[in-house]
Amino acid sequence: MRLYKLFKLFAIIIIVMTVHLPAQGIQSTCIDCHGLLEDEMTAPVDSFENDVHNRPGLGCVGCHGGDNTSDDLVESMSPEKGFIGTPGPLEIPELCSKCHSDPDFMKTYNPSLPTDQYSKYLTSIHGKKSEEGDKKVAHCSSCHGAHGIRPSKNPLSAVYDKNIPATCAGCHNDSAYMAAYSIPTDQVRNYKQSVHGIALLEKGDLGAPTCNDCHGNHGAIPPDAESIDKVCGLCHHNNMVDFEKSSHADYFSLMEKPACESCHSNHLIEPPSTEMLSGEEPVCAQCHFEDDGTGALEAANMMADRIDSLEAVIASTEEQIEKADQKGLFVTDGLFALKDARQKVYKSRTAVHTFNADTVVEITAAGFNQAVEARTIAEELLDNYVFRRKGLAVSVVVLLILAFSIWIKVRRKESSQ
Amino acid sequence: MNNDNMDRRSFLDYILGGSILATLAAVLYPVLAYLKPPEAAEAMTSSIKVGKLEEFPPDSSKIFKFGRKPGILIRSPDGELKAFNATCTHLSCVVQYRRDLGVIWCACHNGRFNLNGKNISGPPPRPLEEFDVHVKDDEIYVSRRSA
Q1: Residues of A in contact with B124 (CB under 8 A)
Q2: Which residue of B has its CA nearest to A404?
Q3: Same domain for B113 and B80
Q4: Of A92, A303, A340, B143, whose CB neighbour count within 10 A is largest?
Q5: Nearest to A412 by CA among B16, B19, B22
Q6: Mean pLDDT by 10 residues, chain B (147 residues)
Q7: Contact call for residues B115 and B102 (beta carbons, < 8 A)
Q8: Nearest CB to A330; choose among B9, B23, B40
């Protein structure tokens, strides 16, 4: 077998040496040779064709060193020509950073690309472990690939938003691989069932957060208790503002409890519902109990009740509006009033984070008024529609009576003559 | 006998007369109603009058109805008038103009658009639909852009 491989290598050398190519016609002797090899030796050639580095002409030597103009096997891969072979996992981050951390160099290829990836990587858990000599932790090519690297906005890229959970799951879902780190391996499974995972992976909402939106990408690290509300607050801004102004903020900070996560969990974040306030296992009951003097559970029940009632009124009004709409009636005013009422639902759900029932009651009261306005519009439209239908029926009856009366009158006239 | 005939005839005449009057009413009512028909939805609003120019000082905004969708008219601090579909391109909440930030903002998930309607941060995946704004005799008209 070994003899066969040596023979094949020798044959390739002969082929390359016998095919005389003018120097300026040689694009890359690396590709010329590796293209003739098999399996893992030729794989880089195939995948590099679509690599983002290939298009501007950055070839194999950019990372591996050597001389891709020499058709001499030994010379092209000689250490004197800077050939390093396959870089190891601990060497890759520094290797990539030679270009990617150099703003002057990057400016000539992609000025919009940041150049702080390596410095961030060194602050990440991955980077710190790598610095300690851990070869298992993620480095650049673990996520981006080695020879088929595509821009992150390319749907085929391993770091495209929708592909990131699967990329992270490559390690973080593998309990055997992760055993040494004593961290859970159910994050991605949980994420896929979460409101964010469903939005991104099933509904295709690219605005929904994926792993790196909360953990960072190159500087990946779990957000700590103090910063978690700010991370969630990037999208849930008003919730964050309300929470930070609330009486809970100081207590959570004092007890080092993570703000959002304590009630909403982390990876398995379910769509929020009033069940969280007044269901069988309300989240408030994790800290509060009946008659604990704070009135917290009573307030939670009241908030849930008001929001549920408003949603019920909106749902029934929606049916009325839809009924009127199907009859071709002018429902725009009703739709606008209903939209305003729905906005109040969102607002009241957000206001739950003030932990002040009065605020929620005030907002839902405004929502009720708007829902009632919408309902009144729909009912008036439907009443008017029914009135017109009845009018039509009455008219038809009157016309029939008229026709019948005329018919009798004519018959009488005829019989009297 | 004659009286009976007379009674039946006059009864029939009453019925006939009443029916003629009712028929006239049934005919006239739709005619009169036609002069003031019930509001019917326009197939697709293409242009509306939003208000007078004097009602919009620089750095102000107004949410208006544009067909079935809310629109937002913004007069930027330098006086330029811009109008957009006010429905956020993320999850369809109504956006608003934030004078303090100088952006169009969606309260639902902190999505932000610049005053050209371009999504600049947060989850919105695409820009807001822009409408054309025309001022004629100090009245501001907003119209849908032709494709």
Answers
A1: 207
A2: B16
A3: yes
A4: A303
A5: B16
A6: 64 83 79 65 76 95 92 95 95 93 93 96 93 94 84
A7: yes
A8: B40
